[in-house]
Every structure is written in structure tokens, then in C-alpha cells.
Design brief:
About 75% of the residues lie in helices and about 0% in strands. The protein is an all-alpha fold and about 280 residues long.
Length: about 280
């Protein structure tokens, strides 16, 4: 099966969105951490948390282990139940990982509002890199090969069914689809930053359990509503993205307002020196 010609404009948008998903969070973090290089530690811990809770545990579990169970396959046949389980399982794994890492690995003098933002950038950034950036980069490369007349040689290296499925996918590449993917990732990163700040604030104020539970309900609820709206209720993609942008706006507003809720302790001299800062001046 020969894919229909891929729109050049769509490929340009795919390339832009792929680039933003691949390097955008790092560029934002570089600006956020300017003059505060210790924030890269929090950014890296956010990356680690997503990698462990999703790439190394939850995703292999739901794609390789659970599908052998008849009960799991039966559950997935019910769209609403599947959305509920998948949405809240992601929240359970990720928010629990966030709580554990922030409570144990993140040093006490680094549990600040800025660290929460950096943590969320790392967590959501890796998710955008893996789930959207790499996928769109692959679509871009394949689309360019179609434009160059190399589809026949490429299809010959794949089983017929796989080639047909890929041709259908390439034929469906559109500006709207690429933009929707980019907006969805922007909203997800904003939510991850807000949830990271929420959990960290709970830890700082001695209400870690309540913050974890609230973060899990918000995270799972957003996942569930978005999937049901798109797959069950049949909302247009732009309507769902509009809903998620509303979530992003609320998330950003919360992150800004929550800054004053964090205490501002003066780090000990040893911590300041470990971060490459000068020790506080001695009293005269």
C-alpha cells in the first residue's frame, strides 16, 4: 500500500512540535536554573522518577504482564473502566514515586518552590520526550522518505501488514494532529509542575499524605476525564485540548500563587558550599 502524499506543511509542524518536545523542557530548565545550578539535581530527580515509575514499572506491567490475564482483557473491553484503571494507575505510580523521591533523596535545604518546579519540568519533560518527541521525530523522518520517493524500498523491509498500517498512519499526518499533540504535552508538563509543587509543599508543611492523596486524585481525574471525553463521549480533539489547556492555566496559576506558601530557610554553610555558593558572612 502506497501512502498518500504527506503534506509539506504538516511535516513542518510535526518537526517543530517534535523539536519542542525533545529539547523544549531542557531549554526552559536552563533558563529556570540560571544562577541556581543546584536546581539541575531536582530536574534530574524528576526525570528519574518518571523513568522508574512509568518506563521501568507501570508500562511494562500493563503491556507485557497483565495482558496474559483474561480478567485484564475483559476490563479493557469496557471503555470507561479501562479509562478509570489506566488513568488512576498512572497517578498512583507517578505520585507515589514523586512522594518517595522528594521525601528521601531530595535534600532538606533543596525542598523549595524552585525545586518543585524543576522537578516537574524533569518529570514532564522526559514524558514529552519519550511519548511524543521520539514518535513525531520518527513520523518526520518517514514523511521525508515518502517525499523523496523512498517508500517502496522502506516497505520492502517490513511485513505487509506492518507496511499497510504505517502507510495509513503517514497518510493521516495533519497539522491539526501535530498541534494537538504539542498542546497536550504542554498541558501535561504544566500539570506535572503543579503536582510536583503540591507534593513538595505537603512534605515541607508536614502534610505529605494529604498532598499525595490530593495529587493522585487530581492526576487520575484529569487522565480519566480526558480519555472519556475523547474516546467515549466523542468530543472533537480541539475540544479536549481546550479542556486540557484550561487545566494547564489552573496549574500555572497555582504554581505562581503557591510560591509564597513555602518557607524560606537560610541554607547551612555546608549546604551552600556544596552548591558552589559562598558561605554567609560572619556576624560582626
Amino acid at each position: 500500500m502506497q501512502p498518500t502524499d504527506v503534506s509539506t506543511g504538516a511535516l513542518v509542524v510535526v518537526g517543530v512540535v517534535a523539536l519542542l518536545c525533545l529539547i523544549g523542557p531542557v531549554l526552559v530548565q536552563a533558563r529556570w536554573a540560571r544562577g541556581r545550578h543546584w536546581l539541575w539535581t531536582s530536574f534530574g530527580l524528576g526525570i528519574l522518577t518518571f523513568a522508574v515509575t512509568q518506563l521501568l514499572t507501570r508500562i511494562p506491567l500493563i503491556t507485557s504482564v497483565l495482558p496474559v490475564l483474561p480478567e485484564w482483557r475483559a476490563l479493557l473491553s469496557h471503555a470507561v473502566l479501562a479509562a478509570l484503571v489506566l488513568g488512576f494507575s498512572a497517578a498512583l505510580f507517578e505520585e507515589t514515586g514523586r512522594l518517595i523521591v522528594m521525601s528521601t533523596v531530595l535534600k532538606r535545604h533543596r525542598r523549595t518552590h524552585a525545586d518543585g518546579v524543576a522537578f516537574g519540568l524533569g518529570h514532564g519533560g522526559l514524558e514529552a520526550f519519550v511519548l511524543v518527541g521520539l514518535s513525531l521525530a520518527g513520523v518526520l523522518v518517514l514523511g521525508i522518505m515518502v517525499k523523496m520517493g523512498r517508500w517502496g524500498a522502506l516497505a520492502a523491509t517490513m511485513p505487509p501488514d506492518a507496511a499497510a498500517a504505517l502507510a495509513t498512519q503517514l497518510g493521516g499526518v495533519s497539522v491539526l494532529g501535530a498541534v494537538a499533540g504539542g498542546l497536550e504535552r504542554f498541558s501535561a508538563i504544566a500539570l506535572h509542575i503543579a503536582l510536583s509543587v503540591l507534593v513538595l509543599l505537603g512534605i515541607v508543611r508536614g502534610k505529605a499524605g494529604a498532598a499525595w492523596l490530593l495529587a493522585m486524585v487530581i492526576h487520575g481525574g484529569v487522565n480519566f476525564i480526558a480519555v472519556v471525553a475523547l474516546s467515549v463521549l466523542g468530543w472533537p480533539v480541539l475540544a479536549v485540548e481546550g479542556l486540557l489547556l484550561g487545566v494547564a492555566a489552573i496549574s500555572i496559576a497555582w504554581v505562581i500563587r503557591s510560591r509564597t506558601r513555602f518557607p524560606h530557610p537560610v541554607p547551612p554553610a555546608s549546604a551552600a558550599l556544596s552548591d558552589g555558593q559562598s558561605p554567609p558572612p560572619s556576624p560582626r
